[in-house]
Every structure is written in structure tokens, then in C-alpha cells.
């Protein structure tokens, strides 16, 4: 039997922002969504994406933080700096809005994601297993969720 991919399972249990990008990310001033494009065979192709949602920061009265969602770079375009540029764009957006920090969650098997965010200066803030999915699924994947933060 194949093991369930924990990253896939985690993505499936998160709110489906991705199905309504204009409605969710582009209709609120504290949210935004970006795509990276490159011309391939004369056609523009999406090579990466990231979204930000501004949320109230309970540890910082009156301030917000930016939660990063859906950071992904096309597998054929990795390690060429697209992720860094997307992350910088998202961080600049959060700075402009005077958010206190950036925050995101990765699952423990997402080693590239973790290395990437550590390189960007994120630090581990919390480890948990609060997947919104049945306990048997969590047991099968043995994954944990790592919450990472960066003050900006
Ligand atoms: C994580 C991800 C977005 C990185 O995108 P990318 O465009 O390849 O990243 P960059 O080229 O900008 O890399 C910047 C730096 O991050 C680090 N990094 C990126 N990928 C890495 C990997 N696979 N292993 C180790 N370090 C890595 C390196 O320090 C890299 O600098 P270098 O190439 O000069 O060594 C991409 O691998 C991805 O889409 N992964 C699948 C989805 C995912 O895990 N998303 C993040 C968690 S939600």
C-alpha cells in the first residue's frame, strides 16, 4: 500500500482559497496573490505562485501578520530564484501594510520548503498535528505541521 502524501493531505484540509482567488485574495486590501510567469515556446506560462492573507495578531495588539499560502514553484523551474522573488514580493506587501511578521505552515516531509524558509530567515515557532482530518489519516502519514515565522 502506498503512503498518503502528507503535504497533499494537509493541502486538502486547508480552506480552498485556491478555488476563488479573486474572491478571497483580491477583494480585500490585506490579502493578495501573485503568480510568476515565463515565456515558454512563445507562450506565457505560470511558473510559480504565492498568496498572503492579513490576520489579526493576538500577540501584538492592533497589529496584523501575513499568513503565506500556496507557495509553489513549477518543478521544472526550481532553484532559479523564482521562490525568493515571490517571497520577497509577499514580504514587501506585508511591510507596506505594517504587518508584524510573516507566518506559514509546512508539513514535516516538505524538506525543500523548510530549507527555503530557513534561508529566508524564518524560524520554527510551533510544531503540532492539528490536521483537520480523521485521526487514522494522521497516524498513517505520521506527519507534523511546522509553523514558521519571520519578524518583518
Ligand atoms: C520551496 C520552493 C517554493 C522553493 O522555490 P525555488 O524557486 O526553487 O527556490 P529558490 O530558487 O528561490 O531558492 C532559494 C534558496 O532556498 C533554498 N532552497 C530552495 N530549494 C531547496 C531545496 N530543495 N533544498 C535545499 N535548499 C533549498 C536554497 O538556499 C536556495 O538558494 P540556492 O539555490 O542559491 O542554494 C519549491 O521547492 C517548491 O515549490 N516546493 C514544493 C512546494 C513547497 O514545499 N512549498 C513550500 C511549503 S508550503
TrEMBL record:
InterPro entries: Acyl_CoA_acyltransferase (IPR016181), GNAT_dom (IPR000182), NAT_camello-type (IPR050769). Keywords: Transferase. CDD domains: NAT_SF (cd04301). Residues 1-152 form the N-acetyltransferase domain. The keyword Transferase applies. GO terms for molecular function: N-acetyltransferase activity. Pfam families: Acetyltransf_1. This is N-acetyltransferase domain-containing protein.
Amino acid at each position: 500500500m502506498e503512503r498518503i502524501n502528507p503535504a497533499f493531505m494537509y493541502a486538502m484540509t486547508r480552506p480552498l482559497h485556491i478555488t476563488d482567488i479573486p474572491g478571497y485574495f483580491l477583494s480585500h486590501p490585506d490579502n493578495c496573490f501573485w503568480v510568476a510567469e515565463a515565456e515558454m515556446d512563445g507562450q506565457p506560462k505560470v511558473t510559480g505562485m504565492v498568496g498572503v492573507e492579513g490576520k489579526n495578531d493576538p500577540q501584538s495588539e492592533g497589529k496584523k501578520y501575513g499568513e503565506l499560502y500556496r507557495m509553489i514553484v513549477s518543478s521544472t523551474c526550481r532553484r532559479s530564484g523564482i521562490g525568493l522573488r515571490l517571497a520577497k514580493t509577499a514580504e514587501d506587501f506585508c511591510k507596506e501594510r505594517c504587518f508584524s511578521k510573516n507566518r506559514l505552515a509546512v508539513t514535516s516531509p516538505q524538506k525543500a520548503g523548510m530549507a527555503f524558509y530557513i534561508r529566508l530567515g524564518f524560524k520554527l515557532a510551533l510544531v503540532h498535528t492539528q490536521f483537520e482530518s480523521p485521526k487514522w489519516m494522521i497516524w498513517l502519514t505520521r506527519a507534523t505541521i511546522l509553523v514558521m515565522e519571520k519578524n518583518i
